[in-house]
Amino acid sequence: MVEKIEKDHARFRQIVRGKIRQNLRKFISSGELIGRVGKDLVSIPLPQIEIPHFQHGKNGAGGVGQGEGEPGTVIGSDQEPGSAKAGDQPGQHILEVDVPLEELAAILGEELSLPRIEPRGKKNLLTSRGRFTGIARAGPESLKHFKRTYREALKRQIMAGMYDPENPVILPMRRDKRYRSWRPVEIPESAAVVFYLMDVSGSMGDEQKEIVRQVSFWIDTWLRSQFKTIEMRYIVHDATAQEVKRDVFYKIRESGGTKISSAYTLAKTLIAENYPASEWNIYCFQFSDGDNWGADDTHQCVETLKKNLLPAANLFCYGQVRSAYGSGQFIKDLAEALDAENLIATEIRDRDGIFDAIKAFLGKGK
Q1: DSSP state, residue 308
Q2: How many H-runs (helices) and E-runs (strands) does the chain carry?
């Protein structure tokens, strides 16, 4: 019975996984997958899966092929339109399925054909490696530990009075055998840090910041599947920049002007002080509506990118979120001034553009 339940559960998980893959673009753009994040689980609303069955109506009720009808008559409903009374009929059920973030990242990687990231540098990030560090009573004969096996057989024969010093023949039995055992060992390897930079001036509204939040969630999910230990730094700016906590990053709203160079300068300072490029994998994701204060500040941004940020970063991604109040000029200026392999710029016109933006950002495996 237990084995059958496990098979049924595995089959159900396959169905759920297929549904997620089938509707991944819709889930990403609608934000349904981010309803709850707790203890590394995400709640995903899916249509209830039911076995098809016949449902009989009430005796004497009208239906298809029964009685006369008029043009425009609604088929299959005998209630007056606009009725505010409580109903007694079942509605469409929603099933919430808990999916581990690791599995969600795997689905994302498969569906978007994301390559695994090739890390650089060595510091305090942990990866699992296999080492034969223990001894077990069971295992393949190829891993048998001869000295330990001989010792156990010798101890047993001495205790049983079977050992003859004149004829020291040691014959191991099954219970004497010892085997090398493989255990995962966490070894310090590559370190990663992610910088999120966002324009929070008056032209960036709640809708734009919601798009940024969803893109950031999927970026986090993928990067955490590639690195076991990762640091996140959040920078917001209008005419000046400041580092904030994660919850503040998605809620803060200012009303000043926009100087993108202030965020670049702060990111450059944090990298220089804390994250040497020889030891860290550095990722920068910037979000803005494309407005910036004057050509001089844009020129300063380009110079900071050329001299500091692009040489240090594995990847620098710029996502321009469409706003009714933004000019959208900055992405054009970047395209004209820079041509770097690790610089990716893309427009996110609305929620439907989130899927393509994630693929553009993560598709190179940097």
Answers
A1: I
A2: 11, 11
- The residues near 304 (Cβ < 8 Å, ≥ 6 apart) are 261, 264, 265, 268
CB of 190 within 8 A of CB of 121?
A: yes
Distance CA 263, CA 259 (A): 8
Please name which of 197, 216, 206 lies closest in space to residue 34, comparing C-alpha atoms. Answer: 216
Q: Which amino acid is at 182?
A: W
Residue 319: closest CA among 218, 225, 172: 218
pLDDT tens digits, 93-145: 444 555 666 777 777 777 766 666 666 655 555 555 666 667 888 888 878 88
What are the chain's domains? Answer: 1-49+94-113 (no CATH), 126-186 (no CATH), 190-362 (3.40.50.410)
* Burial (Cβ within 10 Å: 0-12, 13-18, ≥19) of residue 221: buried
pLDDT digits (tens, 9 = 90+) for 195-227: 999 998 877 878 888 888 888 888 888 888 877
Q: Which residues contact 340 (CB under 8 A, 6 or more apart)?
A: 305, 310, 316
